[in-house]
Design a protein that fits this description.
It is a single chain. This protein is mostly helical and 64 residues long. The chain has two domains: 1-33; 35-64. The protein is built from three helices and no strands. The radius of gyration is 19 Å and the shape is flat. The relative contact order is 0.06.
């Protein structure tokens, strides 16, 4: 089991040091600091959740 945990830690370190992850973290920080962008993302997430709920209940979407 210890070997698995060591491998998991090594994977975590590799991910954390990868340039793509660093780019992602910077983008997340910028989003956090941008109130207008956060509001837009929240509105999108609410709309997507509403659509998913309607799809689960087999309800048609409203246009407009």
């Amino acid at each position: 089991m210890e070997e698995i945990l060591d491998l998991a830690r090594a994977l975590g370190r590799a991910i954390a040091s990868h340039p793509r992850f660093k780019t992602y973290r910077e983008a997340a920080r910028r989003l956090h600091d941008d109130a207008e962008a956060r509001q837009a993302l929240d509105a999108y997430n609410q709309a997507a959740a509403g659509i998913a709920e309607k799809e689960e209940n087999a309800q048609p979407r409203r246009s407009g």
